[in-house]
TrEMBL record:
InterPro entries: HTH_HxlR (IPR002577), WH-like_DNA-bd_sf (IPR036388), WH_DNA-bd_sf (IPR036390)
Keywords of the record: DNA-binding, Transcription, Transcription regulation
Family matches, as Pfam families: HxlR
Record's keyword annotation contains Transcription: yes
HTH hxlR-type domain: residues covered: 17-112
Protein name: Helix-turn-helix domain-containing protein
Protein's UniProt keywords contain Transcription regulation: yes
Amino acid sequence: MNATGTSAPLPPFDPICPSSVVPVQIGGKWTAMIVLCLEAGPRRFGELRRHLRPISAKVLAETLDAMERDGLTHRRPVDDGVEYHLTPLGRTLLGLIEHVRTWARANLDELSRARARGTMAG
């Protein structure tokens, strides 16, 4: 359980995540994954950073700032730092993200074959 009482586990992300190859992007490259991490409740910066290992601290901070600017997240000071949570507007992305993830899982093989053909042609 974290300092805010959130004990829900963070969502698992496949290292070869279909969302990393899908040609549909919501916000920045990391926006959808951050939205999924915040779905169950507030998270601190460090918790997000540890879970989204490939992202640099700078890019995570920039993405969270952009998400807050767009009204998708809200930053709240806590005892020894800051935590982030989804706003009602940010929560509206959850259904869209699930549809994109479903599409990616259903079409990953075909998408991968098409991309492989494209790299062979170049």
